[in-house]
Design a protein that fits this description.
single chain, mainly alpha, elongated
């Protein structure tokens, strides 16, 4: 007599089949946001003081034209896309939960920060590729100062986004463990934003705290948000 071996279902053998969670597009965007910033910090000139004069700016960027160009693209250009995508995804999640006011605040803050970052990228490229090579130190100083003051405005907008995200964590829309990092980000980035907006050297140093928190918040939101939606 011929014996036919029938595969035993995993449930009958006591072996559970665990679904494989593949990285979502939003998770990739979140990780790419931090990687872009890390790459930006590793190229180009060092931390040029927000109060540097035209000669100092020209010397710093003129010596590292390629690196400075990459730095603006990686710190302002690509991150703008990440902010927009992650922020809009968070806003959609809030809207699905019926939190319409929080959804509007989140969407407006994310898109505003992304728009400011894009303009900063363009101005930075003009500074590095046009003003500095032409020796226009006055123009270079003006552009550099404008980029820094816009950074202050962007940071204040990001503080609003962080507060909105923290409230959504409290509501269960976003990961609950991101609530405290969200509040910490809002506090530190608001302080550094005031520093950059008014060119106050002491407060600009808060960026050393707010930037890692921003990277943590954006990346973690991008990774955890699709899991919350399942």
């Amino acid at each position: 007599m011929t014996t036919i071996n029938v595969p035993t279902p995993a449930a009958t053998t006591g072996t559970a089949v665990r679904p494989r969670h593949r990285p979502t597009a939003l998770a990739v965007v979140g990780v790419a946001y931090s990687l872009s910033w890390i790459a930006a910090l590793s190229v180009g000139p060092g931390n040029v003081s927000a109060t540097a004069d035209g000669q100092q700016i020209a010397a710093a960027y003129g010596a590292q034209k390629v690196g400075a160009t990459a730095q603006y693209l990686l710190s302002e250009g690509l991150p703008a896309l990440g902010l927009a995508l992650v922020g809009l995804a968070l806003a959609r999640a809030a809207r699905r939960a019926g939190l319409l006011r929080a959804a509007r605040t989140t969407a407006v803050a994310a898109l505003s920060a992304a728009a400011i970052s894009t303009v900063q990228c363009v101005l930075g490229l003009v500074l590095v590729l046009s003003s500095v090579p032409r020796g226009a130190t006055g123009e270079a100083h003006l552009l550099f100062e404008l980029v820094n003051r816009m950074d202050g405005v962007k940071m204040l907008v990001l503080a609003v986004l962080a507060l909105a995200g923290a409230s959504l964590s409290r509501s269960g829309v976003a990961a609950t463990w991101l609530r405290l990092p969200g509040y910490a980000l809002a506090l530190t980035i608001a302080g550094s934003g005031i520093g950059y907006l008014l060119l106050l050297g002491g407060l600009t140093s808060l960026a050393y705290l707010s930037l890692p928190l921003l990277m943590l918040w954006v990346t973690s939101t991008g990774i955890s948000l699709p899991r919350k939606a399942r």
